[in-house]
Each structure stands twice: as C-alpha cells, then as structure tokens.
Amino acid sequence: MDDYDYIFKIILIGNSGVGKTCLINRYIDNIYNQGYISTIGVDFKIKTVELDNRKIKLQIWDTAGQERFRTITSSYYRGADAIIVVFDLTDKDSFNELNSWLLEIERHTKDVFKIVLGNKVDMKERILIEDKAIDKFLEENKMDKEYFAKVSAKKDVLVKEMFEKISRKLMEINKTETRNKQVDDRYVNLGENNNWCCGG
Fold first, then answer.
1. Which CATH number fits domain 6-194: 3.40.50.300, 3.50.50.60, 3.30.1360.70, 2.30.30.100?
2. What residue ranges are annotated as transmembrane (predicted)?
3. For residue range 72-115, what is the model confidence (pLDDT) as tens digits?
4. Which helix (H) or strand (E) element contains residue 84?
5. Angle at 62 between CA 57 and CA 67, to 5 degrees
6. Residues 116, 148: contact at Cβ < 8 Å?
C-alpha cells in the first residue's frame, strides 16, 4: 500500500544560472552550494512532506537551462502537476526570457499550474528587475500574483514556504478534479442504469 495520500510532479525551468538546482537543494536537503555547476539534461529528487494531516510525495525535477538541452528536457514536461519558472532578479536576460519559457510549457503540456519565482533576493544592491515589470508580466500572462515570490536559495528566504504553498494548491486542484470526476461518473452510471436517451 502506498504510504502517501498524494504524489505530485513539480518541474523547475528557466535560464541557466538562475538557481534552480540551488532552490531544490535548499528545499530538499537544506543546503546551499556556493560553487556553480550547470545541470546536464535532467535530474530529480524526492521529498515526502506532511501538510494538513496529508502525506504528500513530491517529485521535484531539475532541468538544464541551456538551449541545446531543451529538446532533451521537453519530454519531462509530460505529467507535470506544477511548473515553476525561475528567473534571476539580478539578470535582465533571465527575466526577458520568461515568455519563451511559458511558450515551451504551452508547447508540451496543457492545464498545468504555473508559478514564477524570482531568485537571489538577498543580492539587494544588484537587483535589476523592478516590481512594476514583474506585476506587468504576471498580469499579461494571467498568473496569480499570490503565487509569485522573491526568494533566495542562499539565504533560505521563502523557499520552503513557496513549495508548501504550491503543494497545498495542488491538493486543492486534485480534490476539485476528483469531485468533478465523481459527479461525471454518477451521471454516466445513471445513464447506463436507466438507459436514458436524449433526443435532438
């Protein structure tokens, strides 16, 4: 028997060097490695957490940000429950590339929960992305501002909180979908049992 109530697949995408691996390491193992080693292809880690008296198994996938790996990593979008798009608050290119990452999501999956995180908020003197630019991006792409955060893998700012917030949202989505399916199944069963026929 499975020892969890939910299992969710969460993928982190974004330009190379924005801190995707560091965010995962901070959340999973509560560590931060100062040295930067670029992810090759795809890697993933598993964390089981308990939230609201429910045990949740999270598969958190780390993807390479370099252009040459995008065709390799695209297959890993399938079956994702949530996709976190990460940018670097000190790097304008990583912010400007967000739209292309959203297009990648649309190309490979449908009806997935999307979140944006701005990493490296600890580097206050080097931040280049203004709040109004972030607000405009979220509004134009119809993304819930409640699920945006400025985080820091290095200083452990809002990392655990955001993963838990995402997990709670996924539980909520899962419950809604389950309820809808149960309603659909009831109607199907009624139709089968009573041989209903709708004339046009």
1. 3.40.50.300
2. none
3. 556 788 899 999 999 999 999 999 999 999 998 998 888 899 99
4. strand 82-88
5. 155
6. yes
